Amino acid sequence: MPNQYLNSNLKVFSLNSNKVVAEQIAERIGVKLGECSVTRFSDGEIQINIEESIRGCDVFVIQSTSYPVNEHIMELLIMIDALKRASAKTVNIVIPYYGYARQDRKARAREPITAKLVANLLETAGATRVITLDLHAPQLQGFFDIPIDHLMGVPILADYFSKKELKDVVVVSPDHGGVTRARKLADRLKAPIAIIDKRRPRPNVAEIMNIVGHIEGKTAILIDDIIDTAGTITLAANALIENGAAEVYACCTHPVLSGPAIERIQNSKIKELVVTNSILLPEEKKIEKIRELSVGPLLGEAIIRVYEKQSVSTLFD
Question: Residues marked as binding for D-ribose 5-phosphate?
Fold first, then answer.
């Protein structure tokens, strides 16, 4: 384990959303997690105490803004303010999963752009840099006026599937918007791609239309950035099998898995769902079909490079 950062000005703190990833990040860097406590008053107000000096330090705070989203965002905002007032040199926030990312534009009249609002809140609180993973739309980087390092989960997923040595693979995008992501995975697996053309009549409801590309007799790998209620991905898997695919795997970076998701996955044609631990999965969601991969080493390496003022983009060359 590297230990050159043990007595440095690099500090890593974890809030409540994903302490497992935070511990993996700290292990990769070779430091202990910083001492802080997150408590609540009887009316639910959040109180944070930083229990060590961080004056003049480069501080990295690990917090996925996953369920309960608003609680975790508020924890993060209060932590940023506490660090700023305690004279941290820089306040770098590491957000493995960025909540509200799907509210990134006005699709209808009088809708908010909440992803931008959250970015504004983080900046106003005092964040000096953001490190995040697989934003729902890469354009969200432009919502920030501070540096943002946008990491990719595809290499982690690709490495897993490469080691499985699957035969006759086709990478499938569940919609037109995910084609670029599917292409990145396909390039790493040296496989062709296919696209599922679907129509979404209302939120969280998807209707499969047809499949563009050759999938008959092939091992299909569906890829998405987020799987929420799992309606799209399970319907897509069923459609692939009905149209002649030999077997179907699925993968995503962010396993939101809300509502009926686990039941749908369990009853679907998906042989295995591969996810990362950008969102902490409770034990009841860790079914046999789900395989979890760690993003801790990737995020830890990114933090080291930011601290050492090295290139982060070369991580993916």
Answer: 200, 224, 228-232
